[in-house]
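Working notes for the structural subgroup meeting. M.R. asked for a predicted model of this chain before we commit to crystallization trials. I am recording the input and output together here so anyone reviewing the notebook later can reproduce the run.

Input as submitted:
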Amino acid sequence: MLRLLLVKKPSVRSLALKLLAFHLTSEEGADTKRPLIDARVLSKVTNLFIVKKPIELKLDDRRELVIKLETVEKVYEIFTSDDVDLVLRKSAAEQLAVIMQDIKMHAVVKKLCLIDKIIEYLNECVSQDGKVVECLIQPCLTLLRKVLCGDPVMRVSLSQQSSLLTLLFRVSLIFHEDCTVVTEVGALFCLLLFDEVSRMDMWSVNPSNKPSLPSVFSLPVSVFRRYHLPVRVIGHHAVSPYSIVLPLSADCLALKPVSDMLRIAWNLSWYRGSDNLLKQMNSETKMQEILDALKLSTEDILTLKITHMASGLQDCLHSIVQAAAHREVRAAVTRMSFYLLNDRLSLKGCPGPCGVTLKSLAWHTALNRFLQVLPACTEDEKLLIDIVHFLNKLIKEQRKNSSLELLNWILELLLRHSANPLLDLLVLTESQAREETDDIRTAVRQQLQKELIALFDTLLLNFMEVTDRKCSELLYVFQTQLALKLLQCLKVTDAPHFYGLPSLERTLRGMANLTAFPGWSSHSPLTKPLDICVKYLSGLLEVITSFYVERGGNAMSFMGKGVTKSTILCLLHLSHEMMAQAGSSEWMSLWFLPLGSHSEEYIPTQQGLAWLIPLWVDRDPEVRFTSLGLGSALTTLETGCVALANSCQNISGGLWGTVVNILLDQSECSMVRREAAFILQNLLVIPMPTEIIKDYTWQGPCVHDEDSGLSLIGKPALQALLYHCHFYEHLNQMVKHCYLGRCMFDLNFSAFDRNSESNDLNGLDDSFKFWRAPSRISQDRDPSSLSTSETTVAPSLESTEFQPLVQSTTLLPEASHDQFVAQGHQESTSPRPPHDSSLSAPLPKPCVFVTPSLLSAMCSLLDNLLTIAPRDTAKAFRQAHLIELLCSIADATLIQTCVQKLRVLLPSSPPAEHTQAQVSFLLEYLSSLSRLLQSCLLVEPDLVIQDELMKPLITNIIGILTVCTKDVLDKELISAFYHTWTHLFNLLAMLLRKAGAVTLPSVTVALAKHWTAAIDMFCKCAGLSATCPALYTASLQFLSILLTEEAKGHLQAKSKTNLSYSPTMASLLDDTQENQKSLERLSDVILQCYEGKSSKDILKRVAANALMSLLAVSRRAQKRALKANLIDNCMEQMKHINAQLNLDSLRPGKAVLKKKEDGVIKELSLAMQLLRNCLYQNEECKEAALEAHLVPVLHSLWPWILIDDSLMQISLQLLCVYTANFPNGCSSLCWSSCGQQPVQATHRGAVSNSLMLCILKLASQMPLENTMVQQMVFLLLSNLALSHDCKGVIQKSNFLQNFLSLALPKGGNKHLSNLTILWLKLLLNISFGEDGQQMILRLDGCLDLLTEMSKYKHKSSPLLPLLIFHNVCFSPANKPKILANEKVITVLAACLESENQNAQRIGAAALWALIYNYQKAKTALKSPSVKRRVDEAYSLAKKTFPNSEADPLNAYYLKCLENLVQLLNSS
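Returned structure, recorded in C-alpha cell form:
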C-alpha cells in the first residue's frame, strides 16, 4: 500500500490513503500515537511524496579518512546522550549526516547501533509527547538514508519490518508541511520498498557469483515509468531480461479480429468519439469517401448502436412504439433491463449511465399504454410481467437518488379514478378463480401477482427518503388503497391443488411491508382507519386459527414457515396502528379468540389471547421473537396485561413464570429473551397489591408453596419468584457473557438433521416443559386468585441449583416439548416422562452469547424493579455487584474504533451496515444503562457513587460524548448517537447534583483530555435546538450544572488559594491561550441560541442558564459577551420592558403584573441575571454598564421592582455585583434620575430623586419577615458604604438613626438577631474611612450600644463591634471620644483575657492604636487593671508563641503587646 503512494495516478494514491488510514487506526496503540488519523489529515497528503526536488542517492568513497574515528565516536556520544540539550544533539546529528557521506565511516556507527537509536527517536516523535524531539527528526532521517544507501543487507532486514514502514509514514504525516522531511521519508521508502528489484546481481542476464558494489542503488526503467520517485537513481533494463518477445507475424494484420478492431478504432478516432460517429451515420449527409477496408460493416454499426447507452435505449423505445407484436416489446424491455444490470455491475455509488439517460428520454409515454388496460390474454400478462419487473429494477437502482418525476408518474398511474389495472390485478374475481383450470395460465398469474407485490414493496421502501410534499401525499393514499386490496387477497386463494400457500405467503409478505409504515390505514375517504384495522385483524386471526392453533402449531401443519412469520409480523404492526388510531383500549377485546378444542363440548368457551402462547415456543426463532414482541406491544395497555394473564391461567407458572423462564433460558437467542424482558417490564408498570384484594383487577404474580401451604401475592410474590428463579445470579452471568463484537452467524445445520426430525414429531422448544400443569395443585383455591397468574414452587425445583453458563457457538438439536393441557386434566398425548422427573434433573444447556440489545432490555426491566421495590432491588444489586458489571461493558474505545472503521468503509457495503448495527446496539445499551443509573442515584446513591466505579464510568461517558460523527452518513445512526448523548448528559447532570464534590474532579479531568472535541460537541449540540431539542436541552443543562458546581466549590474553598483538584473548568476556559478560540466559539454559539429565540420559547431559558453559568466562571466569556453587545442588548431589553409596563399601566382595568407567571417579568428577571453574571468581577464590563446607564434604567424600573419580591432580590444582586470594588458605579447610584411612575406602584411610595435614596428607604421600611430581600439590601449598602459620595447620602438621610432603635436580646437569649448583624457589617464598612467614623461617633449612644452588643455572640460574625472600635481608634480625631467612654476601654482591655485569639489581637491592636502619639491615653491606660492585663497577656503570648515568625498574625499580636508594654512603661 505504501508503494501505491508513489504511483503517478492520483485516484490510486487516494485509494491507498484510505486503506492505510484503516491500517493505522487499527494498529496496536494507535490511540497513543500521533497524528490523529481523520479525513482532514488525509485530504492534505494525497500528493505527499510528489516532490519538486528529488534527492540524489550518491555516496563518496574516499581513499583516505578525513576525520578520525575517535572524533566520530565522540560526536555519536553527544547525539545519543539523554543528558545533553536537544540543540547540541541536533548539531551532532547534522555533523554525523555530513560524516556519513563517506561510505568508509559507516562501519564505525554500525558497531554503535546507530539505526536502533534513530528508530527510538522516531518512536518518541510519534508519541503523544513527541513535539519535544521534532528538531532531531530531519538529521536522523538523513543519517538513516545514507546508512541504508550503502548497506544492502540492512535494507533487506528493515524492509521486512512493517512497523518501521508505518512509523516512517506517521512521521511524514506529522511533517507533511516540511518538504525536507517528506522528501527524506520518500527516499527511505524508495530504498526499502524497491530493494527487491534494485540488486544488479539478481537482475543481470548473466549473473555472476560476485555481488554488485554496495554503493550502487539502481532500479529498472519500468519502475520510473510507473512511479513518481522522490530520488534520482541509476536505471537499468528498459526491457526485462525475463520477458519473452514474440516475433510479429506478417499475416497478423490480415486476421479478421485485428482488422475489425482497427477499423472500429480508426472510425472512432476519425469522428472524435462514438457520439459524432452515430450522429453522422444517422444524418442524411453523405459520408466522406474512405477506403473500403475502413468502412464500417452492418455488424459494426449494430454493435456500436447497442453498446452506446443512449443510442441503445433510444432504439429500445423506438422498438416499443413501433412494435406490432408482444414479442418485440418484451425483447426491448429485456434489453433495457440489461442496461440496468450494467449499471449495477459497475459498482458505483452514484446512478449509472442507464439511469441518467432514462431521465432524459420519454419512456413513460412508451410504456404507459401497457399499464392502463387489463391484460386480455396470457401473452398480455407475460408482457406486463416484464414491464413491471423492469420498473421494479429501475426504482431499486434509483433508490438513493430518487426521481420525483418517476415516482409521481407511478403513483398517479396507480391512483387513477377510473380503471386501476395494476391494483385490480392483485385480486382475482370469483369467476376468474373458477375458470382457472390451466396450470400455465395460473402460473403466469401467480408470477404477475408476485411481480406486482414486489413493485409495491419497492415503492414503499423507496419513499422512505422522499421529502416532496405532493409525492408524500400520494404515497399515503396509495398505502391505504393497497391495504384494502391486500385485504381482499386474503379471501381469495389459488386453485385447490396449489393449496393456496404461494399466494397467501406473497400477500402476507406484502401486508407486512405495508403495515410497517405508521398511519397506513388513515387515508381512505370511505373507510375509517379503525374499521380497516379491525378487518385486518379478523383476516389475520383467521389465518392463525386455521393454519396454526387448530393444527397444533407448525409441528403438525404443512403451511410454509413464511406464512406464520409474516402473519405474526403483520399482527405486531397492526397492534401499534390500532393503538395510534383508537382513542381508548376497548379494541383489545377484538384480539380475543374462543379457547378449547372440539372435545370440550360441555365447557363454555372462554375469550382470551391463548392463541398467542404457542407461537412463543415455535421452532423458528423469528416467530418466537415476533410473537413475544406482539405480547410486549399488547401489554403496554393494562387491559392487555390482564387479558394475557387470564389466558395463561391453565399453564403452570402462569404468565409471570412463563415469561421469566423464557427470559432466563440460557439456550434461547437474545432477541427472543429481549422481548420477554419487555413483557415483564410492562407487567411491572401496573400497581400491584401486597395482599389478596377481592374484586381487584390486577393481582400481579401469585406464588404457592405446596409444602407449607403458603401463598404470596403481588410484590412479595414477585420477590419470591425472582429469588426462586435465581434471577440476579442469571443476570450476573448474562453480563459476563455479553458479546460486544459485530453480529456474525455460524450456520450449523446439525440441529436440523433428519434423525432428530424423525424421532420427534413435536420438535419444538424444550422450554415448554416448564409450562406443564402439575397434578398436585389444589382445586379449592381462593376465587380471587383465579384472575392472577400463579407460580407453584415445587420442592424438586427448590433443590435445583443454578446452572452456570457454558460458552458454545453451536446449536444442539432442539428437544421436544409437551402440548398444552388444561390445568387439573390428565395428559394423554405426551410422550414425555413424568413432570417431576424432567424438572428434578434438567439437562445442561449450551449458552449463546448475550447481546447488548438484551442487556438494554434488562436495564429497563431493572429500572422498573427498582421503582417497585427500591430496597430489595438495591440490596440485590449490591450483593450481585450488578452495577459494577453493567458499567464495565460501557467502552468508549470500541465505539470510537467502529466509527473510525465507518470512515473508510463503503457506505452501503455489508461490513459498513454490520458496523452501524453494532454501534447502534452499543448506543442503545448505554441509553438504558444511563436511565438505570439515574434511578439508582434517586433511590440509593451509594450504588453508583464509588471511586472505583465513577472514574472509569465518567471517562467512558466523556469519550462517547466526544466521538467525532462528522463522517457518519447514516441518519438512523446519527439519531441513535443523539438519543444516547441526551441520556448521558442527563446522567452526568444528576451525578453532579447528587455528588458534585466527588464527581466534579473526574468530569473536569476527562473533559480536559478531550477539550477540543468537547467544545465541538457542545457547539454541535447547541445548534440542534430545532432538530433535536432534547439533546440541546440536556447538553446545555449539563454545562450549566457543571459550571455552577465549580462556582460553588470556589465559594466553599475561598479561604484556600486553589481548589483541591486540577485542572478546573475556569483554568480550561481562561488560562491557556490555545483554548481561547474554542471558548470564543462556545460563547458565540450559546449567545446565538439565547438571542435567536423568542421570549416565549422555553429553550431560551435553557440557553440563558448555560450562558449565566459560563459568564460567572469565565472572564474570557464575559469579554466575548461584551464584544457581542450583550450588555447593550440587555439594557435595551429592560428599557423596552419598562415602556411596555408603563403603557399597560395606563389601560384601565388591566392587571399589569401577574407575579412570576407574567412573561414580561420573567424576561426582565432573565435580563438582569445575565447582566449580573456578566459584570461579576469584571471592571471592563462594569464600565460598559455605567456607560449604558444601568442605574437610571433600574431607577425607572424601581416601582415595578417594588411590587415583586423575587424581582427585587435579583435587582439587588445585580447592584451588589455592580458596586463591588467599583467606586464609579457606587457614585452613579447617587445621581438624580426620574422615571414614569405607574399607578399600581403608589402604595409602596413614590420614586425618589436617586436610586440610593430608594435603597435607603427600602432598608428602613423592610418588614422583618422578608429576610432575603433585607439581607440583600444591607449587603448592597455595605458596598455603597465604601464610597465617599454614598456615605454623604447616608449621613444626610439620617438613615443611621435606625441603628439606635435596634432591640437587644432579652431573657436567656445570648445571640444577636440577623438584622443586628447586618447593621454591624454596614457600620464596619462605614468605619473604614475617617468620615464614616465621624458619622458613627455623632450618633448619640452609638458607642454604648456597640459596647452592649459586644457582650452577645453570633456564629458567623462574633467580633463585629470590636472591629468597629478597632477602626475608630486609629483616627487621632476620634481618640478623645473613645478615651472618654470607659465602657469601650473596658471592653478593649477585656479582650486581652478572651479565649478567642482573634479578639485578643483586635483588642491589642486597638489599644496600641489608641495610645500611639496620644499622651492622655498613656495616662488613662496606666491604670493597674489595664496595665496588669497587658503584662499578663504579653508574658503569656511569649510562652505560647515562641516561634511567632511562622504565623504573621501571631507575630503581629506580639508586636502590638510589646509596643503597648513599652509605651505604658515609658514616662
